[in-house]
Amino acid sequence: LRQIKTDANDFGMMSYDPAFTNTASCSSKITFIDGDAGILRYRGYPIEQLAEGASFLEVVYLLMNGELPQKKALDTFAHEIVMHTMVHENIRELMDGFRYDAHPMGMLISTVSALSTFYPEAKKIEDAENRRLQMVRMIAKIPTLAAYAYRHRRGLPVVYPDNDLSYAGNFLNMMFKMTETKYKPNPAVENALDVLFTLHADHEQNCSANAMRGVGSSKVDPYSALAAACAALYGPLHGGANEEVIHMLHKIGSKSKVPEFIESVKKGEGRLMGFGHRVYKNYDPRAKVIKRLADEVFDAIGKNPLIDIAVELERIALEDEYFVKRKLYPNVDFYSGLIYQAMGLPMDMYPVLFAIGRTPGWLAQWEEMLLDSEQKIARPRQVYLGYDQRDFVAIDKR
Ligand code: ACO
C-alpha cells in the first residue's frame, strides 16, 4: 500500500496497523505458514517430512540455498561448519567478565554482537562470498557461545568444540562433558535436539525475524543484526513461553488439579501457557512432532513426571468449548520445555536453544532481504497524536 495524497498539503492515506497484524513487510520464498490449516513448510517442504527425514544441517543448507543438498554438497557444507566452530580466545575472556549469575541469553546477545569486532570484513555485505563465509561462521559458532554461557554460569571451564561429533552432539559435548574421557551423547537425546533445532529453524515474519530484517536493512554487518534478532527473542512473549509452561505445570502440581486450573483460566485468572498462537488457529504442526519426540526421549532417558499433567491439560482443553471456540491449540512451546528439562537443561537455556535453531532462518531472511531490489531501509510511518505547534516558554516563565 502506497501513501495516497491529493496534494502536497494532504496528509494522505496510510495504513495504521500497530504490531503489523495485517501488514506484509516483505515478500519471501523461504517459509510458508497456513495458520488455519496448521501447515508449515520450509522452501515448500512440509515441516513433518523435514523433521522425520533431514538432519538439521540439511535444513540449514535448504534455508540458505533454496534446495536440498546432494550427499557430497552436504558433506562439504558440514565440513565447512566444523571448520568454524571455534571462537577467538578473547571471546572466552570477554565471557569471563560477566557476573557469575548472568543470564545466558544476555551473554549470547553480547558475544554475538562482539563477533563483529573480530570479523570487520563482515561489513562488506555486497560481496556474496564474504556474506556466505559470515553466515557459515555464525551457524558454526552460536552453539559454542551458547555452551560457553552455560558453563560460565556454573563456574565450569569451557569445553572446546569436538569436530568429530554431529552439530547437536558437539553442542551437548560442550555443555555436559565433565571428564577427560570422550563424551558420548545419548543417541535419542542427540536426535531429539537435532529435530528441535529443525522445528525452530524459521517461522517467517515473527518479532525476531522482523528485527533481523529491520536492523539489517540499514546495511549493518550481520553479527550486529543477529544480536538484534537474539535480543528480540529474549523477550518473554517470544522465546520465553516454554519456560512459563514448566512453571504452570509445577503450579498445577497433579493431574487431579487440572480441571480446577482450566476453570481458573476460563475465568480470566491467567492464560494456559503453550496454548494459542497469533497465526495458528489449529494444532501447531511443530507441537505434533514435539509430542512424538517427547515420548522417544522419555523412553530413552526416563519420563518427565510433568508430562502426565500436560497431556491431561491438552485433553481437557481440546474438549472444552472455551478453547474450541477461540481456536486455542497447543503451540511449539507446550511440550518443548518438558524435553529440555528431561535432558537436564536449565530453564534459562531454553531461549538460547531456540536462538541456535533459529539462526539459519534469520540469516536466510537477512540475505533474501539484501538481494531484494524492492527493499530499502525499514522506515515505517506513524500517526502523530501530539501537540500542534506551540511557542517555547523560557524556564523562568513556565
Ligand atoms: N489461554 C487462555 N485464553 C487464551 C489464550 C491462552 N493461552 N490465548 C488466547 N486466549 C484467549 C484470549 O483471552 C482472548 O479471549 P477473548 O476473545 O475472550 O478476549 C482470545 O483467546 C484471543 O486472544 P488474543 O490474545 O487476542 O490472541 P493473540 O493472537 O493476540 O495471542 C498469544 C496469541 C500471545 C500466543 C496467546 O495465545 C497467548 O498469550 N498464549 C500463551 C503464551 C504462549 O504460549 N506463547 C507462545 C506463542 S508461540 C511462540 O512465540 C514461539
Helix tally equals 17
Provide the succession of SSEs: EEEHHHHHHHHHHHHHHHHH
Give the neighbour order of strands across the main sheet. Answer: 1-2-3
The rounded distance between the terminal residues' Cα atoms is 44 Å
How many β-strand stretches? 3
What composes the largest sheet? 3 strands, antiparallel
Bound compounds, please? acetyl coenzyme *A
Strand content: under 5%
Q: Segments where pLDDT lies below 50 for 5+ residues?
A: none
Overall morphology? globular
* Overall mean pLDDT: 94
- Using only CA atoms, what is the Rg? 23 Å
Catalytic activity: oxaloacetate + acetyl-CoA + H2O = citrate + CoA + H(+)
Pathway: Carbohydrate metabolism; tricarboxylic acid cycle; isocitrate from oxaloacetate: step 1/2
GO biological process, one term: tricarboxylic acid cycle
InterPro entries: Citrate_synth-like_lrg_a-sub, Citrate_synth-like_sm_a-sub, Citrate_synthase, Citrate_synthase_AS, Citrate_synthase_bac-typ, Citrate_synthase_sf, Citrate_synthase_typ-I
